[in-house]
Amino acid sequence: MTKTIIIGFGNTLRGDDGAGVAAAEMLAGDFPGANVVAVQELHPELAEQLASCDLAVFLDASVRTSTLCVTRVSPARSVHGAEGHALSPAGVLALCSGLYGHAPQEALLVEIPASECGFGETMSAQTLRMTDYCVLLISELLTGETTAGILLDLAPSPAAG
Amino acid sequence: MSKTITISPVTRIEGHAKITIQLDERGNVTDARFHVNEFRGFEKFCEGRLMWEMGGITSRICGICPTSHLITSAKAGDDILAVTIPETAEKLRRLITLAQWIQSHALSFFHLSSPDFLLGFDSDPATRNIFGLITKDREFARRGIRLRKFGQEIIEVLGSRKIHTPWAVAGGVREPFDAAKRDHLLALIPEAKETALLALKTLKSIHQEFAADIPNFGSFRSMFVGLVAPDGALEYYDGTIRVMDGSGNIIADKIDIHRYDDYIGEASESWSYLKFPYYKPLGYQKGMFRVGPLARVNICDYIDTPLAEAERKVFKAMAGNAEAVNNSFYYHYARLIEILFAVEKAEMLLHDPAMLGTNIRARAMINRRLGIGASEAPRGILFHRYEVDENGVLEKVNLIIATAQNNLAMNRTVRQLAIQYMDGNKITEGILNRIEAGIRCYDPCLSCSTHASGRMPLHVQLLDCEGTVVSELRR
């Protein structure tokens, strides 16, 4: 059975930027036994949790896309994004790979469109809708109704979007 | 024609900064400056907010040491309420402060500084990083990550989240502790202690390899400022202010934190957003002092945990016991002693039955119009000073952050390194590495100290006497 970790990250005090965290918290509520993590930022210790998983899904808000965007993430080849306390998904995967000799076989980044990232704990209507859609898709992934491959086909890349 | 070299951004520290090195007509270093070029203005925009919100707001200054801001803010709040918080609440706050030290110091040593020590200052910068460290000694790197995780685990167990927990409040803490959580944390102590000892052993074993460089890493006499317990022990949460000079003389002691303003002034320079705190009795520049691990281990009379106290004695013996250890390179050594102390002390606290008490919060209205909180953040003493109206609305805020207090010393260190290593008008990787490493001794957190955001890459510029950039190096 595929061991999956869902990691939602972002700043819930900056409006839409908290979409990844909101999605993860909803998933944690719906799937109490699932390996779902909601964090402000990606930190080095996550490498250990990732090492025991086959599939990692990062949920993050993004101003680069206007629709839900799913892309494959590979471990970073350079130190960029892997130093300090706040890492990128590629950076934390690289740390995982370096420290434990392997990373999840598949890692996805789900970008939830964000437009209003000012101070405040309220998300815009569009980001709320996309967050719900993200939760739906990841729920299907957790229940086996969909696969990582299907998710990758579902949403256009940022360039296409 | 004189010239200035600029290093910007500086890497493997938290925040944004650059370094400029000024040369005279003959190519000799005349000055070097560490510029911090970000600004967020927390002190100003907090005005008008309720003092109850300050823990949540000020902890957002930083992703590394939010807990230190939270605790110090809560202490300023205690002062405004005019309450003595319950014993359990104080001990729980002490535990989370130790956890903050462990996670921050572990990141500084293993993740940011170890690559310099284990791979060497002259190794390829492309690999002199955490990945190079993993290649060199994967188990050491793993242990470092796990040690930081241990600190984060304590914070999460107490505060329900690793970063920006809202757990401490004016009057105490929000949630009590329980036996299951205690047992979970106690089970993690042995590995944490073992890793702290391993790190100390590693640093001491490679120390001689840097014998030629160490004398240039901020080796100068300065004052040292920090909190000590009433009996002179190393303190991290409470206590009074002690000031020691570079010769090891205690020149001011048992200063109530409410009088910090009598002793610590803040100067500004047009070329940096980072203020320049100084020891007021000696005035700006002459009043340079250092805070943080080097200061704390220097100024205390003893450490009340056995393993850390044994290391402190070795540390002090380096300078002949009477003299303060004046070389900033030994911030790393002091930082590791403090990790060991924090793990030992956390174990002691976890065995204390008072930790499981349920009386965790004193409640009161606004009873004072001024509140001051101080604690020892990982990088040094941290002050929060709030003036409020009768409803607790903030009228004035002053935050004095550890990294800023080291600003004069960091500039002095950069100047010392530039003078020692600059040869002619060209910046080499070797020079760049050493200057970065010199700053890294202080583990500066520029997000905190300017209350500014971001990370800190390295940018060095060489300027001539007319201010023209003649050489530049970025990383």
Secondary structure tally: strands of chain A: 5
User: Most extensive interface: pair and counts?
Assistant: A-B, 21 and 28 residues
CATH class of the largest domain in chain B: Mainly Alpha
Kindly provide the radius of gyration of chain B, computed on alpha-carbon positions and rounded to a whole number of angstroms.
Answer: 22 Å
Oligomer state of the chains in this structure? heterodimer
Write down how many β-strands of chain B occur, each being a DSSP E stretch of 2 or more residues: 16
Sum up the overall morphology of chain A in one term. Answer: globular
Can you give a write-up of this model?
- The complex is a heterodimer of chains A (161) and B (475).
- With 161 residues, chain A is of the alpha/beta class.
- Chain A has a single domain (4-154), classed as Rossmann fold.
- Chain A has five helices and five strands.
- Chain A has helices at 19-30, 46-51, 89-100, 125-143, 148-154; strands at residues 4-9, 36-39, 55-62, 69-72, 106-113.
- In chain A, strands 2-1-3-5-4 form a five-stranded mixed beta sheet, with helices on one face.
- In chain A, strand 1, helix 1 and strand 2 form a beta-alpha-beta unit.
- Chain B is α+β, with helices and mostly antiparallel strands.
- Chain B has three domains: 3-38 and 413-474, no CATH class; 84-212 and 349-363, Cytochrome-c3 Hydrogenase, chain B; 221-326, no CATH class.
- Chain B has helices at 42-45, 54-58, 66-81, 87-119, 130-136, 138-159, 179-206, 260-263, 293-299, 306-317, 331-350, 402-405, 407-421, 429-440, 446-449, and strands spanning 3-13, 17-23, 29-36, 168-169, 172-173, 223-228, 240-244, 250-255, 264-269, 272-279, 289-290, 370-377, 380-388, 394-400, 456-464, 469-474.
- In chain B, the strands form five sheets. In chain B, strands 1, 2, 3, 15 and 16 form a five-stranded mixed beta sheet that branches. Chain B has a four-stranded mixed beta sheet with strand order 8-7-6-11.
- In chain B, a hairpin with a 2-residue loop joins strand 4 (168-169) and strand 5.
- In chain B, helix 4 runs antiparallel to helix 6 and helix 13 (407-421) runs antiparallel to helix 14 (429-440).
- The longest helix of chain B has 33 residues, at 87-119.
- Chain B is globular, with a radius of gyration of 22 Å.
- The model of chain B is unreliable at 449-456 (pLDDT under 50).
- Classes of the chains: A alpha/beta (161), B alpha+beta (475).
